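Kindly go through the entry underneath: sequence plus C-alpha cells. Please state briefly how this chain folds according to its C-alpha cells.
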Amino acid sequence: MLEFHEAELKLCLGEYSKHIHESLLAEARQQAPKKAQVEVNLEGSCIIITIKAATLSGLKAVINSHLHLVHAMYSTLKT
C-alpha cells in the first residue's frame, strides 16, 4: 500500500476567490506529468486546495507552485 503525504491550504481572498479558483481548476485539470493529485474547491470566499503526493519533496514542490500561482493572480487582480 502506497503512503501519501497530504496538505490542505485554505485561502480566504474575498472578492478575488472566485476568479482565482477558476484559474486553479484549469491548472489542476492539465494532463502534464504530475507529482501530486490536486483538488481545488470554493467554499464561500475561501479557496480550499488539497494536495496529495507520494513524496514529501513532491508535496512541497506542488504547494510552492500553487502558492506562487495564487500570489501572481491575486497581485494582478488587485491592481
